[in-house]
């Protein structure tokens, strides 16, 4: 297992669990603080279960004032704070600090207001993603970003990760769908970022805060945009006998001016896995399946549908099926949406990767992943948001075999480095967290990393918010660089090796 | 579709870095400048001009990826022409305010046009930025892919920073297909009613892509498939405007009569559903009510207070002579963050110091 980030703020004194718990109980009441080992256990990891650590103490504020009190307390004593929403994150962003406070935001879970005329919702950070769309539904509105984890994940977590979803090719990521945040900074100060207008004066702090993984501030309230529900949605399921053709087909559809609402791809191993689990009616012989969803007005969707069918056929689709009704549409989607749980059925464990590449390299990257899978002797299934080139290779392994976890991580790391080599990124939507620190050293040079640290220091001079996550130390990169010589070039040649 | 070849124009980044390093050493301010078409916007600044136009050209463009990468000094018109050849566009519909406008200047000012509430703002389409910070370091953030959450989103942070955080040298943008059809209608509506009406319309999936209201008239543009555009125009009624395209580009470029001979032009950005404000003067309203242009004799203080009272902000967009305060004053906590970020990117305060705010 790659080493966990251990960095703690320089000045912090040794952590006295009983004392901190007692102090926090005075601030929040006894019911809102957990310090017993069995009580802490459920918090030891997030969705990335390979990384585990018990938190020092768990604090569960019920309103913004209590939350500010906790932060003020921690700031005064330089105690690290790790915010946590639903803990569905897949990069260890909410991995606790053993000498810190895990701030559970689950009780800040109220929808404060929905304004149908301005099409906005004002919510607390612990509100679940799907809850917003459910509440907006009676006005004919919805909140667009829809991560597959949407029944569980919170809007605070979505903002911290800049989460995407199945429909972000058309509707954008979290950063495109929020207007205003109330944020508590590390010194306890409450600031308003963004506004109810379409822009705010000065720097784009709203963009900076989105995707900052809890390192720059704690979101205590968010105003999000709502959109009118499209009149109808139709789904095309296309099979290909060759992943190269399927990859090219994605580009062909988009180059011809169609922006699907969702555009997903699965390779053969995934198709076999999910079909056994969800009975979606996928052709298990197909080398790849594309799911292309079109939404809008009935007439427009019909028009695009015709166009998409032609392009897919010209691109070499061996079969095309358009979902006849809503039930069939849901069934076609079920397989894709259940890809992760399905992997869990055929393998004791899986490691979900999250690189993004320019779409035109899909076929080349899949071929290389297959080679890596053979080299390392672990199965890899591929499911991804083809429309935006965001890959989710699942590396299948068995954690009971310590050796396998190490190999899975190494293979995963290679896949991410391949994404960078192809002009992409090590994380499209799951974040860096505790997991991809080494790969950040591959994607960025020392100057960029230094600049990230400078930004962190500018917003959190005390260094208490989720320390050690998201941005690797230069020291760590030097060590990593010494092990991995990238394309014949030693990264960070100027830094001392240890 | 073929990629566009890398520009053959010289790469001026090395030269820019030397200029900036030198200025940092001497603590002498620089005035970053593209086509100088937005010289009117912002506070007056002194400094040696660093002209970005020597660093121009489209570097990479794959229509099927919906991504274009161009150097900051590229004329905005060139970028749009290349995209148009492939049936694509910058969906934030940026105003040029002059033929010389460059891509870098447009993004530094974060200017977006009539399509902004429906398609997104300039920053929404930014995927990656290469910039030179105030120490002369060349830094690359983001990239050429639509989804990318590695590291803080510095590519978007610098959009609208008016060159105060770094000199952008290269920008990658997400582009969109041009709509198959567009149509514009005109209706008679008073302002209060129109603001409410357009926001009611937005609750339905109509293909609205611009609205403008002023002088009792409401212009609405539709973009999309031929059928959708026709159906929407029929549904909302009104008179079809013959030269709709011209109307929207005149609005975007401030060539409509409204903008003529205005001694001072204010831009109020307010929550779109805000009813008409009671400030004296002439109004022209876009973005479903979110962007309101005002020509008024009211004092800056009065205008700022009225905008702030409804949760918005006011910019003195154009004025005669240099101005002390152009952009809306920042809340103290936010101002503190601006100063800390400025120090992190430009510790010697040599990049466009004072252009946006006195202390930045
Ligand atoms: C089955 C499954 C499917 C998934 N599918 C997708 C998908 O399609 N797209 C996608 O993008 N992701 C997906 N994810 C990942 C995950 O659901 C998202 O990252 C989600 O946004 C995390 O939300 P959370 O509430 O669980 O946050 P957590 O995991 O609790 O926290 C995530 C990060 O946010 C920080 N944080 C939490 N709340 C706040 C706050 N209020 N202020 C500041 N920082 C905060 C934490 O410190 C941590 O760094 C999936 C996960 C699973 C398990």
Describe this structure in words.
The complex is a heterodimer of chains A (498) and B (360). By secondary structure, chain A is an alpha+beta fold. Chain A has four domains: 17-104, 2-Layer Sandwich (Uridine Diphospho-n-acetylenolpyruvylglucosamine Reductase, domain 2), CATH 3.30.43.10; 111-228, Uridine Diphospho-n-acetylenolpyruvylglucosamine Reductase, domain 3, CATH 3.30.465.10; 232-340, Alpha-Beta Plaits (2-Layer Sandwich), CATH 3.30.70; 347-421, Alpha-Beta Plaits. Chain A is 36% helix and 18% strand. Chain A is built from 17 helices and 18 strands. Chain A has helices spanning 17-28, 37-40, 64-77, 129-136, 155-161, 168-171, 205-209, 243-255, 268-278, 298-314, 326-337, 339-346, 362-376, 402-421, 437-443, 446-459, 474-483; strands at 33-34, 57-59, 81-84, 101-104, 111-115, 120-123, 141-142, 178-184, 190-194, 218-225, 227-228, 232-240, 262-267, 288-296, 319-322, 349-352, 380-385, 390-397. In chain A, 57% of the residues are buried. Chain B is of the alpha+beta class. Chain B is 26% helix and 24% strand. In chain B, the strands form four sheets. An eight-stranded antiparallel β-sheet of chain B has the order 13-10-12-11-15-16-14-17, sandwiched between helices. The radius of gyration of chain B is 21 Å and the shape is globular. The termini of chain B are far apart. The model of chain B is unreliable at 1-6 (pLDDT under 50). The interface between A and B is large, with 95 and 86 residues. Bound molecules: flavin-adenine dinucleotide (FAD).
């Amino acid at each position: 297992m790659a080493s966990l980030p251990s960095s703690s703020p320089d000045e912090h004194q040794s952590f006295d669990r009983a004392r901190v718990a007692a102090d926090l109980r005075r601030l929040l009441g006894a019911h809102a603080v957990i310090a017993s080992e069995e009580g802490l256990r459920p918090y030891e990891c997030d969705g990335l279960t390979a990384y585990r650590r018990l938190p020092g103490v768990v604090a569960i504020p019920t309103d913004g004032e209590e939350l500010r009190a906790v932060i003020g307390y921690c700031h005064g004593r330089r105690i690290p704070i790790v915010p946590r929403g639903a803990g569905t994150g897949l990069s260890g962003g909410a991995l606790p600090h053993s000498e810190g406070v895990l701030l559970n935001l689950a009780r800040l879970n109220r929808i404060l207001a929905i304004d149908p005329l301005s099409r906005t919702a004002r919510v607390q950070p612990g509100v679940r993603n799907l809850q917003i769309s459910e509440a907006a539904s009676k006005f004919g509105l919805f909140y667009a970003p829809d991560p597959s984890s949407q029944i569980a994940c919170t809007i605070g977590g979505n903002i911290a990760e800049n989460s995407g979803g199945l429909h972000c090719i058309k509707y954008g990521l979290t950063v495109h769908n929020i207007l205003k945040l109330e944020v508590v900074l590390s010194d306890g100060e409450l600031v308003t970022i963004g506004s109810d207008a379409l822009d705010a004066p000065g720097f784009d702090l709203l963009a900076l805060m989105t995707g900052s993984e809890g390192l720059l501030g704690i979101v205590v309230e968010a105003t999000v945009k709502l959109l009118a529900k499209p009149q109808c949605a139709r789904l095309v399921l296309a099979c290909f006998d060759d992943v190269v053709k399927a990859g090219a087909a994605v580009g062909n559809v988009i180059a011809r001016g169609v922006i699907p609402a969702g555009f997903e791809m699965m390779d053969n191993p995934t198709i076999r896995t999910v079909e056994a689990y969800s009975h979606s009616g996928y052709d298990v012989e197909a080398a790849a399946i594309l799911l292309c969803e079109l939404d809008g007005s009935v007439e427009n969707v019909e028009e695009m549908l015709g166009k998409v069918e032609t392009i897919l056929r010209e691109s070499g689709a061996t079969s095309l099926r358009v979902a006849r009704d809503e039930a069939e549409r849901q069934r076609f989607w079920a397989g894709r949406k259940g890809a992760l749980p399905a992997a869990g059925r055929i393998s004791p464990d899986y490691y979900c990767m999250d690189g993004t590449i320019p779409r035109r390299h899909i076929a080349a990257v899949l071929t290389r992943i297959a080679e890596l899978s053979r080299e390392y002797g672990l199965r890899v299934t591929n499911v991804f948001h083809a429309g935006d080139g965001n890959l989710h290779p699942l590396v299948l392994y068995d954690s009971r075999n310590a050796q396998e976890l190490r190999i899975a991580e190494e293979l995963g790391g290679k896949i991410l480095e391949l994404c960078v080599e192809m002009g992409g990124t090590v994380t499209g939507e799951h974040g860096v967290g505790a997991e991809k620190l080494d790969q950040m050293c591959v994607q960025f040079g020392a100057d960029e990393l230094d600049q990230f640290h400078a930004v962190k220091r500018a917003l959190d001079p005390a260094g208490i918010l989720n320390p050690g996550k998201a941005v690797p130390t230069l020291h760590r990169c030097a060590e990593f660089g010494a092990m991995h010589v990238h394309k014949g070039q030693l990264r960070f040649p100027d830094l001392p090796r240890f | 579709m073929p990629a566009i070849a890398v520009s053959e124009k010289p790469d001026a980044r090395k030269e820019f870095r030397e200029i900036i390093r030198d200025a940092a050493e001497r603590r002498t301010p620089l005035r970053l400048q593209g086509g100088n078409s937005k010289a009117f916007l912002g506070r007056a600044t002194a400094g040696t001009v660093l002209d970005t136009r020597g660093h121009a050209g489209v570097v990479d463009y794959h229509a099927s990826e919906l991504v274009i990468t161009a150097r900051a000094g590229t004329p905005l018109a060139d970028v749009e022409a290349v995209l148009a050849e492939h049936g694509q566009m910058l969906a934030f519909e940026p105003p040029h305010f002059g033929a010389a406008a460059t891509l870098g200047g447009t993004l530094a000012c974060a200017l977006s046009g009539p399509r902004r509430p429906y398609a997104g703002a300039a920053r929404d389409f930014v995927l990656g930025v290469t910039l030179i910070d105030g120490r002369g370091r060349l830094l690359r953030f983001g990239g050429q892919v639509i989804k990318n959450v590695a590291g803080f989103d510095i590519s978007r942070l610098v959009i609208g920073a008016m060159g105060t955080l770094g000199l952008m040298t290269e920008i990658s943008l997400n582009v969109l297909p041009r709509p198959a059809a567009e149509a514009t209608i005109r209706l008679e509506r008073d302002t209060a009613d129109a603001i409410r009406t357009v926001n009611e319309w937005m609750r339905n999936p109509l293909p609205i892509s611009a609205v403008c209201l002023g002088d009792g008239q409401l212009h609405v543009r539709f973009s999309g498939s031929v059928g959708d555009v026709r159906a929407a125009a029929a549904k909302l009624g009104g008179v079809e405007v013959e030269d709709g395209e011209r109307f929207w580009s005149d609005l975007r470029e401030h060539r409509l009569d409204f903008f003529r001979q205005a001694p001072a032009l204010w831009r109020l950005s307010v929550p779109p559903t805000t009813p008409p404000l009671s400030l004296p003067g002439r109004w022209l309203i876009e973005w479903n009510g979110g962007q309101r242009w005002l020509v008024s004799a009211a004092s800056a203080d009065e205008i700022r207070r009225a905008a702030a009272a409804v949760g918005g902000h006011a910019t003195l967009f154009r004025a005669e002579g240099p101005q002390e305060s152009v952009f809306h004053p920042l809340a103290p906590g936010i101002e503190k963050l601006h100063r800390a970020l400025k120090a992190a990117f430009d510790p010697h305060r040599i990049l466009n110091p004072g252009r946006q705010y006195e202390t930045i």
